[in-house]
Amino acid sequence: xxxxxxxxxxxxxxxxxxxxxxxxxxxxxxxxxxxxxxxxxxxxxxxxxxxxxxxxxxxxxxxxxxxxxxxxxxxxxxxxxxxxxxxxxxxxxxxxxxxxxxxxxxxxxxxxxxxxxxxxxxxxxxxxxxxxxxxxxxxxxxxxxxxxxxxxxxxxxxxxxxxxxxxxxxxxxxxxxxxxxxxxxxxxxxxxxxxxxxxxxxxxxxxxxxxxxxxxxxxxxxxxxxxxxxxxxxxxxxxxxxxxxxxxxxxxxxxxxxxxxxxxxxxxxxxxxxxxxxxxxxxxxxxxxxxxxxxxxxxxxxxxxxxxxxxxxxxxxxxxxxxxxxxxxxxxxxxxxxxxxxxxxxxxxxxxxxxxxxxxxxxxxxxxxxxxxxxxxxxxxxxxxxxxxxxxxxxxxxxxxxxxxxxxxxxxxxxxxxxxxxxxxxxxxxxxxxxxxxxxxxxxxxxxxxxxxxxxxxxxxxxxxxxxxxxxxxxxxxxxxxxxxxxxxxxxxxxxxxxxxxxxxxxxxxxxxxxxxxxxxxxxxxxxxxxxxxxxxxxxxxxxxxxxxx
Length: 550
Fold this sequence. Notes:
Blueprint: E1 10-13, E2 16-17, E3 21-26, E4 41-48, E5 51-62, E6 65-68, E7 71-75, E8 83-84, E9 87-91, H1 147-151, H2 156-187, E10 190-198, E11 212-216, E12 222-223, E13 231-235, E14 254-258, E15 265-276, E16 279-290, E17 299-305, E18 381-385, E19 390-395, E20 401-404, H3 417-423, E21 428-432, E22 438-442, E23 450-453, E24 463-466, E25 468-470, E26 476-478, E27 482-494, E28 497-509, E29 517-521, E30 528-529, E31 538-548
Parallel strand pairs: 10-11, 22-23
Antiparallel strand pairs: 1-3, 1-9, 2-8, 3-6, 4-5, 4-9, 5-6, 5-7, 10-17, 11-12, 11-13, 13-16, 14-15, 14-17, 15-16, 18-19, 19-20, 21-31, 22-31, 23-24, 24-29, 25-26, 27-28, 27-31, 28-29, 28-30
C-alpha cells in the first residue's frame, strides 16, 4: 500500500526482542498511529535507551492489536535492535528517502524510477517514457485540432474518473480483507503466520531465498496461479527476518495466503509437511482461491490455523429442536409473525418426565416464572412498554411491586390505587369531643381538649383549628391522621344548643403547629350560627365526613 506521512505521531512500543512493533500508549502532546490507514506503509524510528532503529513497515491490525512490521534501513547495531518492552516509536522521514530541491532549483533522482498519476508541464525530457495510456486534453467534438479524437485516446478527465473508481474499490477490498482476517482469528487462532515475498528460483528444485516463497503445480513446475498450487515452499525467514520453526504446524490444518491490496487469495488444506534445510514444503489441497501472484504487490500475508470441531448436537436447528440447557440472550429478541398468522404463541405446558413422557399436573401449579430475585434485586425489573410509555412495570427485591400506567376506560381494565382513591366511595369517619368538654382558645398551638378559631364572632369566623378528638370507639384520634371530604361537617354545641354548623374544606397543617390541623368553612359563611365563642365556656365538638389517612 502507499506510503503515508502524518505530523507528531509518537507512542510507546511494548514488545520484546526482534518481533514486529506493538503500539502502546500515545505520548502526551502527540497523536497516535490510528490516524494512519490500516495497511499503509510508514517510516518509523525506535528508541530504546541508547539503541535506535530507523526503518519502514506496514501498519496492521492483528486480532485487535495494532502493529508495524520492521524493515531496517539503519540502526545503532546494524540490524534490528533487541527491544526491552519500554521503547518508544515515532513516525519519521529518513534522510536517505527524502526528496530534496537542489540549489539549482531541480530535483534529481538518478537511481530511482518515478511513477506519477499525472505529469503536467510544457516539456517532458527522458530517454524513455513508459505509459499504459496517452492522456491528451481536448475539446468535445472531432476536428483537426482535437488531438484526443484524432488519436482515439482517453482524455485526462476520463482517466482521472476511472482511476478514482479503481482506488475506491481497492480501499474496499483492503478493508474487507482486514475484517475477514479479524473474524477468522476470533474463530480460529493461528498456529503460525508471517509475510513473504514471491520470488521464483532459477530451478524449481531449489529452495526459496530468505523472505520469499514460491508455488509448484502437480507437475513440479513453477506457477503463479493459486488455483493450480500443489506445493507451497517458504524460506524459514520471513520478510521481517523472523525465523519460523513450523513446530506447531500439523497435517490437516488450513493455510491462507492473501494480499491486503487486492482481492487475490488462497485457502488450502495441508496434506503433507516436509522440513528442508532453511525452508519448508507444504503439499496442499486447494479449497478456495482467486487470482494469483500477479497483482499490485508480490507480498502475501500467510496464516496457518485450525478450525475447531463443533459439537452440532449442542446447537439449536433453524427449525424444530428442543433446548435442554440454559440459554442466555445478550441482544434483542424479535417476534415477527409470518402471515397468515398475526401472532407468535408461547404455549405453556405441564412438566414432563426425563424420558419425555407427560408427568401430568400432579395437583400442583405449573407454568412460567419470571424470577426477579437475582442479581441487583432492588432494580430487577420486567417492563411491558410501547413507544408512548411504560404500560406495566414489575419490580423484584425486598419490596416487590407492580405499577400499571395504562389507560383505565373499560369494564375489565386493571385499576390502580390512585384510581380507587379518586373514584371509589371511601369510609367516612366522625370525630367528637366524646362527652368531654373542650375549651375555646384564640388561634395558636393547641393542647389536649382545646380547639381554636380565627375569630370569636361566629358570623366573622372563617378558620377553625383542631388537635385531638375521639373516634367512634372512644379512642384518642389526632386530627392530622384525617383529611376533609366534600361531606365534612362541623358542629359546635354549648349547653345543648347548636351554636354553629358549617361545611369544612382545605384541611391542612396549622400555621401555628404542624401537629395541628386548620380548616376553612365552605362557602361565604356558616350554614347556621348563634352568638360568639368565649374562653370561659366549655363546648362539645362534632366533625363528620372525614377520611382516614393513617
